[in-house]
Amino acid sequence: MAILQSPAGKKTAWTLVDIFVIVYALFPVLWILSLSLKSSETLADKSFFPTDISFEHYETIFSADVSLFIRPLINSIGISVIATLIAVVFGTMAAYAIARLDFPGKRALVGVSLLIAMFPQISLISPLFEMERALGLFDTWPGLILPFVTFALPLAIYTLSAFFREIPWELEKAAKMDGATPGQAFRKVIAPLAAPGVFTTAILVFIFCWNDFLFAISLTSTENARTVPAALAFFTGASQFETPTGSLSAAAVIITIPIIVFVLFFQRRIVAGLTSGAVKG
Amino acid sequence: MTTQGPNPAETAAGSTAVAEPAEDAKRGNGKKNGKSALSEGKRAERRLAWLLCAPAVIVMVAVTAWPIIYSLWLSLQRYDLRFPDDTEFVGLDNYVAVLSSGYWWTAFGVTLAITVVSVAIELVLGMVLALVMHRALVGRGLVRTVSLIPYGIVTVVAAFSWYFAWDQVYGYFTGPDDAPLTQTIPSLLIIVLAEVWKTTPFMALLLMAGLALVPDDLLKAAAMDGANAWQRFTKVMLPVMKPAILVALLFRTLDAFRIFDNIFVLTKGQNDTSSVSMITYNNLIKGLNLGIGATMSVLIFISVAIIAFVFIKLFGTAAPGSDTEGRR
């Protein structure tokens, strides 16, 4: 931007900006991490960093009754993974049609998925609550997977069709000219080109499902299907009378780990996925 | 939708007889290749497209369209799960009850206030962050990486972190005597802060996509002509970015309007800090009053539709999904 400044001054300025952004982004994360590492005695000392590091809260949540944390963690992983797989498969099919084929109703489909992306989810809680109770889906895995897939689909369709539109499809024809069977052309040429987009979409969809709170808290009532974000709202300490702050923080840190891993390893892809899907539509 | 010329599939199907069999075989439907074709190929293409879209459409419609109709039906009944025998059709009584209730309007005002204030702050901060992510000379990758943490983190986790930060016993922000989360205005400010922290990076990413569309030559030319940084920003960058800004605003406004997680954790809606989603939840899941809950659901749906309509009027042809979108 500012062309006239000295290179060294610019570097320092940008470094300061970087530091500011890093502090901004990490502040709450570090605080919850710090709380989870404080021992019960120092939990209320109000210091930002723990004075002594203790893993007692982590031991608590893993040694307590499974319904406290372990079962919700399994639910979270299972439900999010299954919902992601379904949403990505369905999304890939629809996005391929949108990017590659000509058919009436294409714009309607894009419009509908846009509408659903902005849909107030709370509006569905009453009817879904009632319908799932009638169908026996209330408080089950499928009962959560269904709304997760629904609201993940627009995201999947948008991101994937943006990626698919960038794929040089002529390569497929070229491969066939060179004697490849359609199956080979797909496996050797198209699949490797499409894989990064599909993978990126899967990450975004997984983050979305992992994050959900409203459906998880409204459509479950026991540890049968309750995911971790919903379980956190009902957290208790090792005993009913102990404050759950420490163990709650430990649980919060554990479900943040996958997010941090994704962000660290796939930063570029996530940025590409979010920007291409949202703006080029 | 198509931004780069004619649809490749269309050309393949229409132009050459050579491409036809390959296309059909790839679709794997084993159909005899109609040489007479154009229409046959077209029809096959449509059928394939509909087949491919069917699962997604069926799920989306089954989980949204049908329930919203059912919601309308529920909203016209007196239906309280605690008194299931007392269920009857009451017409618009529920709407009268909700719309004449002070609780509803307080929640509505709170929701609107949170939406407007947080989206406004996010737009400014997001723009700054987008410029940083786009232009940083030092540590651009690092900045982008850490910015994704607020985006990716579970909202409830972040909300608990803020909650404990302002908690009377554990918080490093509070003295022994202050409990900001028990007072209305401080609570609302903390809710806005939590919301802004979490979603600014998302806003910034959407804006960054718009920034990438600003041609560098144009900026250099403007600089040559003596435009200062602020003029280049307002006169060159903003106009080019307008579609991206509107998309980002639309997404975030509708998202902010349905705020729930942060309020649930931070205040549970006490001291007049409930959003519309929060009181709907309370009536429904805590109060088990399906009639009133459904009525509020319908009212929220209508509010969101109105907001979306206003934005789409503003968009004009730049709306996502329209044919010209993405072109400049």
UniProtKB/TrEMBL annotation, chain B:
It comes from the Bacteria. InterPro entries: MetI-like, MetI-like_sf, Sugar_ABC_transporter. One of its GO terms (biological process) is transmembrane transport. It is found in: Cell membrane; Membrane. Residues 108-311 form the ABC transmembrane type-1 domain. Keywords: Membrane, Transmembrane, Transmembrane helix, Transport. GO terms for cellular component: plasma membrane. CDD domains: TM_PBP2. Coiled coil: none annotated. Residues 1-38 are annotated as: Disordered. It is a multi-pass membrane protein. The chain crosses the membrane at residues 48-73, 103-133, 145-165, 185-215, 290-312. Belongs to the binding-protein-dependent transport system permease family. This is Sugar ABC transporter permease.
